[in-house]
Amino acid sequence: MRKRKERNSSGAPSSGSWLTTYGDMVTLLLCFFVVLFSMASVDVEKFQAMVIGLQSAFGVLSGRTVIEGPGIDSATLLPEPGVSVVDMTQITELYHDIQAFLVEEGIEHMVEAVLEERGVIIRFRDSVLFDTGRADIRPDGAVLIDAIGSYLSKVPNHVRIEGHADNVPIRNSRYPSNWELSTARATSVIQYLLTKTDISPERLSAAGYGEYRPVAPNDTPENRARNRRVDLVLLRLDLNVLEPS
């Protein structure tokens, strides 16, 4: 017994001393991973904030997003499962080109371009194309459609013509409701395009929404005038495949 005690007092490590070193190493590793996790969390939050900003500005996230920074070598951040990412490159370029075209033709005060996630909208006020309660295109409106038609013949996008009305009921022998009037106006524009341009009929479709797709509340004469409109929607190229073949 005396000899065993002397060996322990001679400075040799006891049987449990390695646990202290091991515990220190595990603690340091834990701290290291906590730091890494906190840094990763900050990056994700910044990325999410950027995505929200893009979505609020454009309504979509264009393509995949690449973040470069310390410890990240051109890493590509993919969307979460079940979240679709829309490529708006072509339709955004088309939107800016249409805006420039309207200014060049001097018709930007009568026709406006609107960028949405589904495509570019070329918007006509109904008073520009039609008389009240009618679906026959006015001569001055035909001049506008001629200009727009020459542009549409050069782009590959499907064109959907949409007729809209305000919430004031219309009841006459020809149009019992705003459904018929809005649809008739959209069809009139299609017939004119088919007659005056070389746009393929397969690229065209018509829809009438009556008063049920307003762009402003129907509470003032000015807002009701905004809701009475015809929209030429140039759909995104990836939406073309959803059209009936």
Question: Quick recap of the structure?
Answer:
With 245 residues, this protein is an alpha+beta fold. 46% of the residues lie in helices and 17% in strands.
Fold blueprint:
Blueprint: H1 2-8, H2 18-58, E1 65-69, E2 72-77, H3 89-105, E3 111-116, E4 119-125, H4 126-129, H5 139-152, E5 159-164, H6 178-196, E6 204-208, H7 221-227, E7 229-235, H8 237-240
Parallel strand pairs: 5-6
Antiparallel strand pairs: 1-2, 3-4, 4-7, 5-7
Description:
By secondary structure, this protein is α+β, with helices and mostly antiparallel strands. The chain has 2 domains: about 1-75; about 90-240, 60s Ribosomal Protein L30, Chain: A, CATH 3.30.1330. The chain contains 8 helices and 7 strands, in the order H-H-E-E-H-E-E-H-H-E-H-E-H-E-H. The strands form 2 sheets. The chain has a 5-stranded mixed β-sheet with strand order 3-4-7-5-6. A hairpin with a 2-residue loop joins strand 1 (about 65-70) and strand 2. The longest helix is centred in the first third of the chain and has 41 residues, at about 20-60.
Q: Report the structural category.
A: alpha+beta
The CATH homologous superfamily of the largest domain is named OmpA-like domain
Looking at the structure, the CATH topology of the largest domain is: 60s Ribosomal Protein L30, Chain: A
Please report the first level of CATH classification, the CATH class of the largest domain: Alpha Beta
Unreliable stretches covering 5 or more consecutive residues: 41-45, 56-77
The value of Rg in angstroms is: 32 Å
Q: Which range does the strand content fall in? A: 15-25%
Order the strands across the largest sheet as they lie in space.
3-4-7-5-6
Give the oligomeric state. Answer: single chain
Total DSSP helices: 8
How many domain units? 2
What is the element string, with H for helices and E for strands? HHEEHEEHHEHEHEH
User: What kind of sheet is the major sheet?
Assistant: 5 strands, mixed
